[in-house]
Here is the input.
Amino acid sequence: MAERLLKSVSVRALKGAKRGGQYRREAMIAYGILIVGYLLLQLGAATGLIGMNLQGQFVPICVYMSLAISLNLVVGISGELSLGHAGFMAAGAFTGVVVTRVLEGSLGFAPARLIIALIAAAFVAAIAGFIIGIPILGLRGDYLAIVTLAFGEIIRNFMNVIYFGLDKNGHLLFSFNHAIDGLEDANRVITGPIGATGITKIATFTGATLLTAFTLFVVLNIKNSKQGRAIMAIRDNRIAGESIGLDVKKYKLMAFVVSAALAGMAGCMFGQNYSTLAPVKFNFNTSVLILVFVVLGGIGNIWGSMIAAALLTILPEALRQFSDYRMLTYAIVLILVMICTYNPAIKARITGIMAKINPFKKPKDGGGKTGGRKTGGSKSKKKSGKEEA
Amino acid sequence: MKKTWTKVVVVALSCMMAFVMASCGGGGGSSDAEGGALHIGVIGPFTGGAALYGTAVKNGAELAVNEINANNPDGLQLVMDAQDDEHDAEKSVNAYNKLVDDGMQVLIGPTTSTPATAVAAEADANRTFLLTPSGSSPDVTAGHDNVFQLCFSDPNQGIASAEYMAANFADAKVGVIYKNDDNYSTGIYNKFNAEWEAQGKKVVAAETFTDGVTDFSAQLNSLKNAGADLVFLPIYYDAASNILTQADKMGYAPKFFGCDGMDGILSMEGFDTSLAEGLMLLTPFTPYSEDAKSKAFTEAYQEAYGELPIQFAADSYDCVYAIYDAFQKTGLDASASMADICEALIAQFTGDFVASGITADEMKWNANGEVEKTPKVCEIQDGKYVEK
Here is the structure.
C-alpha cells in the first residue's frame, strides 16, 4: 500500500518536471489571448468599428477574466468548490471605493490612486479569505461549497450595514448598523444597502488589462512553482500528499487566500468603473456566474476560463436583438454549449469536422495558430480527464 | 440514436447563429429607415425581481408613443426602443450604451434608483437628456445638469407631506414613526421635520424602529401618551400593516398618513384591509381616479395590456408627453444630434416649461432636476383609493 502511494507521488513528481514545456505553452496562449484581444479591441475602438455597447464592457470583461482566473486557482488547481467568490469581490470593491475617496483630495494622479486602492483591496480581501479559510478548509467537497456560499452571503450582508462618510476636514467617519447623523449627501461614501454613490470613475481598459495580466502572472507562477505542485498533488491524492509530509491545510489555505486577494483586486477595478455600487450586486448569482466561467472554460484550464468569461459577458448583450426572449435564449445557448463541450461523442464529432475543415491542421503540429491551439486544448483536457480517473 | 441527437444539436446551433446574424442586420437597417422620427430610449427591469416596475414603465411609455403617433400622423413621430437592465447598474449601463449605438436621442429611465444613478453619470459624460419616471433617490440627479426626475425625490415627499398637513390639518398634534436604518424613511422624516418646524409647529413624538421589528407597542404607546392625533408613517407598507393592526388592538385610532411606500397595503396578504380605512397616502396616481385624463389612461392601458396600471406606468406615460411637448418648444427637428437636443431640453426644463399630465396638472423642474408639482393625496375608503 505505502509502496503504491509513494510510486504514485513519484510519478506525479516526474510529471511535474515535464510540466515545464506545458507551462510555457499555457502561459503563451493565455498572455497571447490577452495581448491580441487588447490590441484588437483598442484598434476597433479607435477606428469606430466597435460600438459603445461593447466598449463599455471592456473593463467588466477584464474584471470577469481576472475573477475566473483567480477562482480557477481554488476550483481547478486546488480542487475545492467555492461558491463565495463574489463576497471577496465585494470586500475589495468597497475597500477600493473608500480608499480612492479618501485619497481623492490629496492625490490627484488617478493611476496612483487606483494602484493604492488595488493593494488595499487585495489586503482586505486576503484577510477575509484568511479568516474564512481557517475554519472551513478542514471541510471537503460539497460541504465546503455550501459553507463558502454562506460566507459569501455574510460578507455581502455585512456590507449592507456599514456606513462610511467624510467629515468637513476629509477625515473618514465609520458607523455600524445605523446611518451617520448630520452627514451631507455629497459626503456619504458608503450608505448601507444603497452602497457607494458618487464614485469618480478611474478604471480604464489599459489598467484592467494590466490587472488581468498580473492575475495571470500570479496564478500561472503559483501553478508552476513548488507550492503549486504541492497543491495539485494534494488535489490529486490527499493521502499520498500527507504521507510525504505536505502540510495540506497550509497549501489549501495558501491557494484560497491568494485567490481571495486577486478577487478583491478585480472587485476594486469593477467598483471604480461605475459611479455607483450596491452590495446586492455581489450576491450568490455573481458567485455562480464566475463558477460558470471556470466550468465552461474547463476546470483547471486558465485560458479556457478567460475565453469563457469574455464570451459569456458579451453574449447577453449580443442577444439584445431577441428582446423578450433574450434571457431564455441565453440559457438555451449555455445549455447547448455545455452539452457540446462535455459530451464525448459530440466533442469527437466536432473535432472531426474541424479537422476536415481546417486546412492548417494537416501538417504535423499545424502551421496555423488555431490548429495549434485546438490540439493544445484537447490534449490538456484529455490529460486532466485521465488524472481524475 | 446518438447520431440523430448530434444532428439535432448541430442544426439547432446553426439555426441560432443564422438567426442572431440575421437579426443583427435587421436591427441596424430599421433604425436608419425611420430617420425622420425622434428616438426615445427606455430602460427598466423587464426580467428579474423588479420586472413589475420595468414592464409598467415600458407599457406606459409605449401607450403614450402610440397615442402621439396616431393622433398626429403628419407631425413629429416618436420611435421607442426599450432595453432590459435586470435592475442591475452594470447591465443598465450596457443597455444605455446599446441605445446610444442604435441612435437614441432622449432617454426615459432607468426605472429604479441604483441603475439610474449609474446611468446618470454616463448620460452626463455623453450629453444625453435623461428623464427618469421613477428613480426617486436624490443621488440620481446629484451633480448632473442633464438628469431630471418626474417623480418626487424621496426627501421631497417629506416636504410635500408637511405642506399638505399644514394646509388641511393645521391644528393636529403630529407624531411620527420612522425606520432609522433606512435611507428612504430617514430622508423623508428629516425633510418633513424641517418643513414642519418652518411652519412654526412641532412634532409631539418621533419614534424609530429598525429592520426586522414587528412589535410596535412601545412606539404606539409613546405616541398615544403624547396625545398625537395624526401619525405620519414615512415607511413601507409591510411595517405599516403591523402598526395599523397593533394600534387597532390597543384602541388607539389616530389619523394615519403615509407616502408612496404605503402604496400596496391593500393588496398585502394576511392584512385586514378594513384597518386601512381612512388611511391617507401620498401617491401620484390611482387607477380609481375620477379625473377624465386618468380615467382615459386607465381604460386605454387596460385594453392594451389587460391589467390595471400602477403608478410607474402613469409616470412614464407623463414622461413621454413631457419630452414631446418640451421638444416641440425647442424648435429642433428630429434629425438634431443627441447633444444638441440635450442642451435644448435642459433649457426648456429649467426654463418656464410647464408639463401637464395624469400624475399632476402642472409639473415644473428646478435646476437640480427635481420635479415641483402638487402632490396627490388619496384616502382609503371602502377598500379603494379616493383622491382628496
In short: Residues 8-12, 15-35 of chain B have pLDDT under 50 and may be disordered. The CA atoms of residues 233 and 258 of chain B lie 5 Å apart.
